[in-house]
């Protein structure tokens, strides 16, 4: 028996490119659905003998393409997916597994995840991989925004006479939202108030899922194995606050109210290790073979 829809699904014709800094999704050049010849529907006869249009399985490609193009993912993440994430230590392997589980377990109980750790460990890579998978596998509407961009969009909106609620609504209403580089910036009272409003609204809505990445850790001064990549989403607040000397820690940057909200909403995933990006990787992972040219 023929199962045309399954055939279509198994050979995705969607290609992703970096177009002027934005992720652009489209159909592979020359792709034409063999089932509907590109019409997007087939004609079938219903039980009364009338001809009726039935959406073709390939219409799902167009819906996914639209979701990908509307997600606001930066173009540099065109090739980003779980398969291209190369963990270099246990915390990164665990983070990868938790990110994949996040997609598998996605459902009403899932509220969010927060990836924290030094720059260059692939936090954004994992967050982007998650939303791409949610779009491709489940056709879920996702939105990606850089924290700095989010604040600047809101500021920009003021000059267009939009109400504060209207400005933050796109971020409150997105079913799945990635806030990249949380707590980066000047961290003014206004910034905190905006963030509080967005996070509280998302928290109170029954069906919003929020992913965060941040370079700010909850307790970088300590290397407590019990809080590393903890699936509990809980850290010892009193201990975190004990070290007032470091103003870069997440609880202090966000303030107790937002931070406490995050611990309720999110599974905290802490990444450790060294920057995996090429300039550092070459240095730390050089193999003797490289000596050949010398
Ligand atoms: Zn088709």
| CATH homologous superfamily descriptor of the largest domain | P-loop containing nucleotide triphosphate hydrolases
Q: Determine Rg (CA atoms, Å).
A: 22 Å
The figure for the number of domains is 2
Helix amount: 25-40%
Secondary-structure map:
Blueprint: H1 4-10, E1 14-19, E2 22-27, E3 41-45, E4 51-55, H2 59-70, H3 90-104, E5 112-116, H4 123-138, E6 142-146, H5 147-158, H6 164-173, E7 176-180, H7 189-204, E8 209-214, H8 237-242, H9 250-254, H10 256-265, E9 267-270, H11 278-284
Zinc ion binds at residues 33, 35-36, 56, 58.
Structural notes for this entry:
The chain is of the alpha/beta class and 294 residues long. It has 2 domains: 4-65, no CATH class; 72-279, P-loop containing nucleotide triphosphate hydrolases (Rossmann fold). The protein contains 11 helices and 9 strands. The chain has helices at 4-10, 59-70, 90-104, 123-138, 147-158, 164-173, 189-204, 237-242, 250-254, 256-265, 278-284, and strands at residues 14-19, 22-27, 41-45, 51-55, 112-116, 142-146, 176-180, 209-214, 267-270. Helix 3 packs parallel to helix 4 and helix 7 runs parallel beside helix 10. It is globular and about 70 Å long. Mean pLDDT is 82; it is low at 1-10, 223-246 and 279-294. The chain binds zinc ion. Residues 33, 35-36, 56, 58 line the site of zinc ion (ZN).
